[in-house]
Every structure is written in C-alpha cells, then in structure tokens.
Amino acid sequence: MYYAVIGDIISSKKLPDRFAVQEKLTAILGQFNEEYEEDLASNFIITIGDEFQGLLRKGDHVLEIIDKINILMYPVQIRFGIGIGEIKTRINKLSIGADGPAYWHAREAILKVHEDNDYGTAKLMVSAQENPNLILRINEILRLCDYIESRWRETQKNLVETAILNYGHSLTVKQTDLAEKLNLTNQALNQRIQSSGYYSYIRARNQVATILSTEWRGEDER
After folding, report:
1. Residues 160, 107, 105, 44: is their CA dihedral positive or negative?
2. Strand partners, 161
3. Structural contact between residues 116 and 122, judged by C-beta atoms closer than 8 angstroms
4. 31: Cβ–Cβ under 8 A, 6 or more apart, which residues?
5. Tell me, what's the pLDDT at 120?
6. What is the mean pLDDT of residues 57-68?
7. CB contact set of 189 (below 8 Å; sequence gap of 6+)
8. What does the alpha-carbon distance between residue 8 and residue 49 come to, in Å, rounded to a whole number?
9. CA-CA to 169 of 20 to 30 Å: which in 130, 162, 201, 208?
10. Among 56, 61, 74, 107, which residue's Cα sits nearest to residue 206?
C-alpha cells in the first residue's frame, strides 16, 4: 500500500501574488523532500495550477508533513486529501504520471473536504477502499483536530506551531528549550500547553498515524 497526498490551495485565485506563493510552496516541498526522503516513494511537486502531490511508502509521518506544510504556508490555507491504496503504474522520483487507487482515493478525500467543510474548519480527510468504518472514525478524529485548531488563540497557535516545527509530533518536548524559543517562563509555557490542549492534539494525530501504519501496511513494511 502507498499513501498519496494531494494538497490544494484554497481560494488561490484571490491571492494577491500567486506566483510568490507558488515559489514559496516549491521551496517548502523541496525542503521536506530532503527531510523525509526515507518516507517518500515520489517527491512532492506542484502539479497543476495551485495543486501539489506526493507519494509516501509508509504513513508514520504523513500528518507531521502536512502540519509542517500548513504552518510554513500560513496564512495561505490548504485542503489535503490522503489516499491509501496501490499504484498501478511505474513510480518515478517525481510524482507525475503515476496512477492508481492511492491517488484516486486522495482525490476523493480532497473533494470530500471541499463538500463537507464543517463551516470552514475541516481541512483534511483520508480515503481508502478497505475498512470504511475505520476510515469514518479516522476522519472524525481529524475533524476534531481541525476544530481544536480553529479555537486556538494566536499565542496558543504560536506555541503549537513552534513545537511542531522543532519536534515534529514527538511527545518528548524539551520544555526549557521551547520556553526559551517563545521567550516564556517555564510556568507560563506549562499554562499555555495546558490551555491549548497541545498534548491531546498531538496524541490524536499520532493515533491516526499509528492506525494508518498498522491497518494499511506500507510498501517498506511488507
């Protein structure tokens, strides 16, 4: 099984400088193509207009990658679809020309986000042929995560984003270092972590990643 990711910039035609946004996105995708090289079957690349895609051979870090892209592209908003399945064509280094159920389901997921956007808060869904009830539960967890994120104050959002960019989805966060990066006392940091629900949010993301990796075995786990 492969994990196809399709991202689509929301309301891209309304952006004041679409070319600058595309250049920034290209640089960010290049950065993560290097950082997550071992996870990728095909590199992330902009495909048509304001859409991009990539293909992963395992699901351990797929949500972490998506979160980092969202953080670095802010305030530009992106909707994502993750599709799980086989690839029927040759897989190249760049994810252009490949086709199969993984991409079909990613497309289905991103269209579902567009149709059922939960008042603008839902930005990510997963789709697969197998285990429809489990997919439903996964997407409910992701909707809840999106809702939690939509309720963060700017200070809470800054905390979560700084932690994810520096520690990924690890629950082992060096709070002294994080407090220094945010110019906070340890007490103020602890209060902000608790009020944001940071650890609950990360645990939920990790639970989804674990399910994706265990219920649908990636290509390098066979």
Report:
1. negative
2. none
3. yes
4. none
5. 60
6. 96
7. 159, 175, 178, 179, 182
8. 9
9. 130
10. 61
Quote the CA–CA distance of 103 and 195 in Å, as a whole number: 38
Strand 2-9 and strand 78-85: the pairing is antiparallel
Look up residue 59 and give its amino acid. Answer: G
DSSP 94: B
pLDDT of residue 54: 96
pLDDT at residue 121 in the model: 67
Q: Helix or strand or coil: residue 155?
A: helix
Q: How far is residue 126's CA from residue 215's CA, in Å, rounded to a whole number?
A: 13
pTM of the predicted protein model: 0.93
* Domains identified in the chain and CATH numbers: 2-129 (3.30.70.1230)
Helix H or strand E segment including 2: strand 2-9
